Amino acid sequence: MIARLYLTAHTDLSRLDPTQVEFILALKPFSRHPSESGESRIKEAHDLGFKLHLEWDALMEEPRFLSMTQNWSARYVSSVRVKDAGAALWLRDHTSLDIWLHLEAGHHNRVAVESWKQRLGDRLKGVILSNELPQKTIQSWCDSLNLQTELLALGPLLLFHSPRKLLSPLKKEELHEELLATGASVESPHKGFPLLENEHGTFMFHPKDLCLIDRFDELQASRLNYYRIDDRQENAIVQSLVQDFIRAPLSAEALKHDWSKDWMRGYWNINKSDVLFDKLTNPHLQKTPDIIAEVIDGKKSHWLAVKVLGPQLLQGQDIEVVSPLGKVKIARLVWMKNSKFQECERIGSQEIGFIPWVTGTPTKSVIRYAPARSSSADAPSESEAES
Amino acid sequence: MSQPHYFIPELLSPAGNLDKLKTAILYGANAVYCAGQDYGLRAAADNFTREQLSEGVAFAHAHGARVYVVLNGFLHDEDLKDLGDFVSYLKSIQVDAVIVSDPGVALLVAKHGPLELHVSTQASVLNLQGVLAWKELGAKRVVLGREVTIQDAGALGRRSEVEMELFVHGAMCMAYSGHCVISNYTQGRDSNRGGCAHSCRFSYDIQFEDQSKKVSHFMSSKDLEGLEALVYFIKEGIQSLKIEGRMKSLLYAASTTRIYRQALDYWKEHGSFEAAPWSEWESELRKLPHRDSTTASLLAPAAADSVYDQEEHLDSPWLMAAVVLESSPEGGLLIDCRHGFMAHAHLELLPFRGQAIRLDTTRILAADFESIEKTKPASLVRLPHEPRALKGQVIRLFRGEA
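ok -> structure tokens follow
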């Protein structure tokens, strides 16, 4: 695995080897978080044989996109790392540079990546995988995509990006090119969110940085081609430790110790961020095809008002009423009334009607036909229906 | 290229469930968008079973409206397992289009449909090249990112020959759509698969580098209201105007659709808004629970005044009161109450077309004709017969100034 680092003013090129590290250029106006290193340093890195990759992760509306592409210049770089589908298409059609795709937003399935392979062909050199993918998925993709892969192994996790300037209005008296702050939620226990506002809008990061470098063997076992360390927010001492680590990635302890923020594993082990969804809806009230009616009102000991969802309800039928809590009551429709509260023998589809009261079946309970019973002796009695 | 007067955009309304679908269509939506049980971005919404989708499509087509089904979650490998079967089902019931945000989903729709493909705002398409990238994948329409102005959207549509859709009304993400994972990392709920916890609406203690402090809802956006920008949507030839809010009430679906329908029909009839009843339309929209409104980036990039820096208080002097079930001389006006009210309450019926109608509430009866003084939510109630009332119309309750 080869490391990828952002080229900064602190990068000591003399300590690094082009076979161990490649550099990402985070330059204005392409990068969301520019880290200018200077033209001479870029040239120096290039002349020393380091591979350079331009980061184009800023999203751009049409006027800005047009202006940027009309003044396109990408000296010394061998590839461009893009986030926007439009940027990828433009690079394909207007340059001969290799393309790397950021798969942070969407593209969490292999079919999506295959679609880009079809359209970009051999110009697509690799993908920067989302840290929302767990190791198992990453390994499977690395085995099957037939593309080079990269993953953030140490650095900040971006949580939120708005194009609007949200911090400077709170500091009305001053003009700022860049504003830094931290945020703490008043309504939840979460605090320490780093905040940044610059020309691309406002960003919020996770209070803890992602750290996988102490699981270097797992990263290697995943067959990733590149691991990325984003130390742009670290001081020169830590950046020096990063360079030590790249030269000999045996122990991450010193680097972790001096890193400015606490760290987390993110979704490396498992991603269960969809398992709570089932709890957001009541499974007992799902309108499955066997639901023939729903309870819409009731008068205790007297009647239930129902809306028929299936073809019809007929007097004499046995029904099963399921409450929102999942309690099931069996009843027989010993009488029925229509919407005008007149006795009837049938309530048709989408009609409102009234049936005997069934205890413990409040509004929103659903009604099915009761399962067939083995003999007539098992049928519920009238009193059962009203119990 | 200017459009002739008679061009009016499609009005596209939210349908969080089958009742809302029918309500939106009856109040004048040309199309509705809704979700099945999976693949959308509102896991907590009722959403539609297959049978409900089928019924909804049949209802819509019988009323000359279209149905778009959202498949716009950022789906993972395992989420795709049954997607092909679902797409085949959508095709079999003649759904008019699907709305996607992921190129993998687009490929599977092409394989198992095909179905007309719309690109969700979730994909944050912001520029011509982005539109063309999706056109290559077969997109007929793109719902542009909320950051794109109407003027730019018109130009993108003309240059790409892809239909343009923009949000015209409703709540807004402050982030670029699809670029917020706060819920994922703080609540363990994937915001891009339907689990958004709305952390952007929270209040935050903010400490700047110089140690100065502020408490602010700095990430909360005002609600979009594009009524005053309608003329620009029309003149730029934007094909579809989308109302946000699948999770919102029947009253919201009815009222927003009704007012934007009235405004678009006004243009269709007059070719101008010069003498349009703006104050009446705006007043009607104000009767819904809402945050302060903004035109966001419709006319120019959203500025500092687009932030809703206050506690959420979406109260309104008007509430959703009931839905009309039936009206007949012998049965009276049978309504399904959603909010309790007393005899003599101020209730207004929202007809599908025309002015609101004040209802007679001097006498309230329970469903079994027993006289009552007060109704309770989730109950059936009978009011005096109102011959102008039709099944499916919504009734609102004035509860006094909030």
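The domain at 318-398 of chain B is CATH 2.40.30.10 (Elongation Factor Tu (Ef-tu); domain 3).
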